[in-house]
Design a protein that fits this description.
Blueprint lengths: L5 H11 L10 H12 L8 E6 L6 E6 L6 E6 L13 H11 L1 E6 L11 H16 L6 E6 L1 H16 L6 E5 L14 H4 L5 H12 L4 H4 L1 H4 L8 E6 L5 H13 L4 E6 L14 H17 L3
Parallel strand pairs: 3-4, 3-5, 5-6, 6-7, 7-8
Antiparallel strand pairs: 1-2, 2-4
Amino acid sequence: MPELSVPVARALVRHGLRPVLHPQVPVAVQRAWLEMNAQAQPLPPGSHVLRRSPGGVPARRVSVGPRVPSRVMLYLHGGGYVVGSSRAYLSWTAHLARAAHATVYSLDYRRAPEHPYPAALDDARAAWCALSADTPADTPMVLAGDSAGGGLALSVALEQASSGGRRPDALVLVSPWLDPLRAWPYEPIYHRDPVLRTAWLTRCAGRYAGGADREELAPACFADLSGLPTTIVQNGTDDILAPQGAAFAERAREFGVTVEHTEYPDLWHDFQVLAGRLPAADEALHDLAKSLDAALPR
């Protein structure tokens, strides 16, 4: 498929994705559109996809190439805890598997509004514990997620650190949504992000939260972060959630966590999922893979 320039990709997501991610569009329509649109995203040659259910949670096991990858990654997709799926994220997780030399388990955790908090967290925890039990101690394990999935990944990593469970060897947060119940005072960045709007995020947060309070849903802002492994955070400078990524990176460093936070100029929320079509996304993926190589034991 032809490569996309940044202006063309920006126009495509602004006019093709943003109108669907609107609080007045039914959730079922949003989910169906995302899965249908995902079919236009290419998979790397040699991709292998199998259905699995770590911890009893449906997932897609994604790897690329003939060799058995040397790392295991649990991936938690974005979508405001309401939309998104392993199918909608198949192209991205396949490109991630190839670049990171990993077997990626892309989890279909339960979504709101049918299953509010803590259903998604319970599923992510169950899958991580099951994969941990099945993975040899000398095989590196990575916990990763984007947007809402980034918030889930952080929550699971903190739970493992405090409970004495198996800590991830690295944590990857792509455009993470780390404070769902945060108020939205005006910031100029809101007009630059071609994907997200605060009204949709507010609606998603309400559907997800149930009776939980901000402290429960935002450990990035309130918890002791000292037990986290090396953490890789990526945002675009036009990402509506970039301030949350930057605030988390600063706070985590205060707890002594090694954090690599990269902001990519003039790029938006979750631009990385266009890997394979957008050269800027391929560059970010390459950077992520290099950081993992540096962080993980050989």
